[in-house]
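PROTEIN DESIGN WORKSHEET
SECTION A - STRUCTURE
LENGTH: 334
TOKENS:
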């Protein structure tokens, strides 16, 4: 992919730090702001679109991440807390439910679901159902199972592949995605993309999902500080962002063996944090890759080198990537 193909399509609020991103059924994007308790939306197809504030959640100062709720149209879980990003700690962690209205002029319904005991730092949230979510904990380097009805948090998976390793990154297991009977996850500090075989148990709604085998390491040679991750529905490839060096990696995966190889397909992104791969509403055969960048935000523990996008943060546009079985249009948000 040629570097000159990379252009921005929209500009988020200045000095903002976005992490979570989902695509609504109508094609609009929802993004969570890590440095404020704010949820934003915008129209990715409109190059002149300005992100609009959807809601502000009370009792917290950070929206960590967001996920859709299976079986519910346009409803989402949002993980939030009171965080200190300079020292990488948080407390008073809560799970909220946000119910969007088809009429965007009507504010969404927001429901505080349950508090979450969190002695580590849960960095993501992925719903199995409206009853069960998985929480990758980058600080304690495990994946938790949360019953949203009772608030009970139990250990779902603990493996050496989730540990931080010897790198300089703060976190181990970071992002998580479920595709068919696998839980895919990144290890931020160790530079790994892995998957864990699972089975679903809808007959026991308080359990919902369980592991069925050992972790499979897809690649272990990615740089540290991995953040956003998206796996294709075919499980033949994944996209992983490294927010310190500004690279987007494409990982080719053998679905049968779980082994893979990686290559850098984009560079000089401005601190990419969130990645989402979703079908276009008007053409499900075409997938669009959404990339959220936190831009100019800097904290003491996050080293930054000079970035060629430093002077063009307000430019809007997009890139396309052509692959064998699909076309991925990439939307970058900073």
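SECTION B - SEQUENCE
RESIDUE ASSIGNMENT:
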């Amino acid at each position: 992919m040629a570097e000159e193909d990379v252009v921005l399509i929209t500009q988020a609020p200045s000095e903002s730090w976005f992490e979570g991103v989902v695509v609504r059924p109508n094609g609009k994007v929802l993004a969570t702001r890590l440095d404020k308790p704010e949820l934003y939306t915008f129209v990715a197809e409109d190059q002149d679109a300005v992100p609009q504030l959807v809601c502000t959640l009370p009792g917290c100062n950070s929206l960590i991440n967001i996920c859709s709720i299976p079986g519910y149209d346009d409803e989402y879980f949002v993980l939030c807390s009171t965080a200190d990003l300079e020292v990488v700690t948080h407390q008073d962690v809560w799970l909220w439910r946000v119910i969007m209205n088809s009429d965007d002029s009507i504010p969404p319904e927001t429901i505080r679901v349950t508090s979450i005991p969190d002695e580590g730092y849960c960095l993501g949230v992925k719903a199995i159902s409206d009853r069960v979510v998985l929480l990758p904990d980058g600080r304690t380097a495990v994946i938790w199972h949360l019953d949203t009805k009772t608030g009970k948090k139990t250990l779902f998976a603990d493996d050496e592949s989730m540990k931080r390793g010897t790198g300089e990154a703060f976190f181990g297991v970071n992002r998580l995605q479920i595709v068919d009977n696998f839980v895919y996850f990144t290890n931020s500090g160790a530079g790994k993309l892995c998957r864990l075989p699972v089975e679903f148990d809808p007959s026991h709604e308080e359990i919902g999902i369980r592991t069925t085998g050992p972790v499979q390491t897809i690649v272990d040679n990615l740089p540290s500080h991995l953040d956003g991750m998206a796996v294709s529905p075919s499980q033949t490839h994944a996209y992983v962002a490294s927010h310190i060096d500004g690279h987007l990696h494409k990982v080719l995966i053998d679905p049968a063996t779980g082994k893979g190889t990686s290559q850098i397909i984009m560079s000089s992104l401005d601190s990419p944090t969130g990645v989402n791969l979703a079908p276009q509403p008007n053409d499900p055969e075409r997938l669009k890759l959404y990339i959220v960048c936190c831009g100019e935000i800097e904290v003491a523990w996050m080293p930054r080198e000079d970035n060629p996008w430093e002077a063009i943060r307000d430019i809007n546009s997009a890139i396309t990537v052509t692959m064998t079985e699909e076309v991925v249009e990439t939307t970058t948000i900073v």
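SECTION C - NOTES
DSSP finds no helices and 25 strands in the chain.
Residues 3-7+22-268 form a domain with the Neuraminidase fold (CATH 2.120.10.30).
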